[in-house]
Amino acid sequence: MSSRRLGTAVAAILFVAFAAFLVAPASSAPDAGPKPAAIAWVRLDAAVASAAKSGKPIVVTVFADWCGYCRLMERTTFVDPTVVRQVAQGWIPAKVNGESDAMLKLGKVSMTENQWAIANGVQGFPAMFLLDAKGKPFAAYPGYLDGPQLAQFLEDASLYLKTGGASKNGDFFTWVDKKRKG
After folding, report:
1. DSSP tag of 164
2. Do 20 and 93 have their domain in common?
3. Mind listing the pLDDT tens digit for each residue in 91-120?
4. In a shared domain, residues 122 and 162
5. pLDDT band for position 164 (50/70/90)?
6. Rounded-to-integer distance, Cα 142 and Cα 122, Å
7. How much is the pTM?
8. What kind and span of H or E run contains 60?
9. How far apart are CA 95 and CA 61, in angstroms?
10. Going by C-beta distance under 8 Å and a sequence separation of 6 or more, which residues neighbour residue 47?
């Protein structure tokens, strides 16, 4: 075979191999693993109804569709393995779109998701709320939380509730401060 024909054959093989690489599905890549576990969010009214039956507290994320930090929390915080495990083991997770007109039926009260956010003092997104099993908020955190921060928030809240909640411990954040100062 002449060197010219050999060069043309090698070029053709390289072209075919490169074309196959370009059209190969991303899932066939060796580093593409399973999608990380995420939190199975429900509507707030469904969470409140479930909490009444199960006795579990509720963790609520309040978001807006345009919010960059909300999307960042979706991609990082809410797939953090520690956070996912904590929520699955002891919390009912709920999502509220703080700008939505979707109606919520909370016991005898009906309001939009936006009205719930306003009534609970949301002034920006994201915001996290912790509610007891009766649906009463006992802690709120305005702003972005990374995985370790949310894990600590949930750990503190679980202990707070197990040791008597507001009726025995008073304000959540005061209780946390006292606990840390020892």
Report:
1. T
2. no
3. 999 999 999 999 999 989 999 999 999 999
4. yes
5. very high
6. 7
7. 0.80
8. strand 58-63
9. 5
10. 58, 60, 92, 93, 94
